[in-house]
Amino acid sequence: MNSTFTERLKELTTDIGRGWQASLARHCGVTRAAITNWLSGRNKGIESTHLFAIADYFRVNPRWLATGAGPKWAEIPMDLSKHVHPTVGEVLHKFEELTARRERMSESERIELYMWLAGERPQEPAASQTTR
């Protein structure tokens, strides 16, 4: 693909609704005017720290964002992000584990599985407090 950084950035922002520019500006540590300049192509270059912050924000491959080469979407391990959904392979592996047990899932296991599929991390149990 022979597109520019500006075109790739616009591609990422076409259908995301309102408020994203302010959110992205906060994430990158820049002003909204900087975001506008990136979208208009007025900037001839972009600092690498901002490029990586944008890639992180949209969860895309920084190399793709910078050059258009390589896969568009970044592969993010489950333990690095709270809201990243598991891969198909991870889901199949989880179901294989469950079917191998040959017993019904408890309510808490079903909730934990649902949270895992949704990309949520179960909260750590609070330290038990003893009462007298």
Note down, in words, how this protein is organized.
With 132 residues, this protein is an all-alpha fold. 52% of the residues lie in helices and 0% in strands. The N and C termini lie far apart (69 Å).
Brief characterization of the structure:
With 132 residues, the chain is mostly helical.
For the residues shown, what is the average pLDDT? 77
The Rg value, from CA coordinates, equals: 21 Å
Structural class: mainly alpha
Order of secondary-structure elements? HHHHHHH
Segments where pLDDT lies below 50 for 5+ residues? 122-132
* Main beta-sheet annotation: none
Distance between the termini: 69 Å
Percentage of residues in strands? under 5%
What is the overall number of helices?
7
Number of DSSP-assigned strands: 0
* Overall body shape: elongated
Task: Summarize the helices and strands and which ones pair or pack.
Layout: H1 5-13, H2 20-28, H3 32-40, H4 48-58, H5 62-67, H6 88-101, H7 107-117
